[in-house]
Write the structure tokens for this entry.
Amino acid sequence: MSVVPVFLYHAVSDRSPSWLARFTVGPRTFVEQLDMIADSGLRVIPLRQLVAALLGGPAVPPRSAVLTFDDGYADFASTVAPLLAARGLPSTLYVTTGALRDAGRTSGRGPFPSVATLSWDQVKELDAAGVEIGGHTTTHPQLDTLSRRSVREEVAGCKRRIEDELGHRVDSFAYPHGYSSRTVRTLVREAGWTSAAAIRGASAFSSDQDDPMRFARLMVQADIGRDRFARWTSGEGAPVAPFSEGLMTRGWRAYRRARAVTGRPYRALPA
Ligand SMILES: [Zn+2]
């Protein structure tokens, strides 16, 4: 089995609101991590190449890695994209359509309060520059606690909106907070998404045997440290997907569902 690290980033910035700080990596650290990826001999491939392999296509080369970015923060355009372009690295950016700047929800309201998000013009520029734009729902809910109807609206509405704006099909979806269920995965597939990014446990490696509708990722958090990141680049320090859904995940979902039903949703942030 070929282990594939799929790195998941959120914000890359020196400043971020307190709720996002844990999920923010400073630009210097980000550059160090890109250098460590290169120095370790990993080769960053486009996500579509991994997905093609998971769907039965050609195998990915040994020591492949994938870079993904969730939510759609403005620093992707100002900081991340130039750094990746200078190194010729492909990436996938999953945008939460209802939180983009033009949606007018960035000032203290919406899913990502007090942080600048991308505008549609920027998303279009990134798309034209070769960044793969993927979907991350409209409002960033915990999909596995919603009705089927609401899930459909979130996953199909988001896809329609991105395709209308970009003028071409988009294929790649990421579950907000990483949460899915069998029903959610079915609805995501029915909406036309051909792959979906998850988070298995805190972090896990994907592999050439992983499930394309919930492939695992390694979440890079503020406190990761050089040693742990170095271990990840050498294919160590996290479990390798696929593995079956554990009792912990099922129990945790039941708890979040119960909270959602009683009107006191568990506030998971942000992923
Ligand atoms: Zn997210």
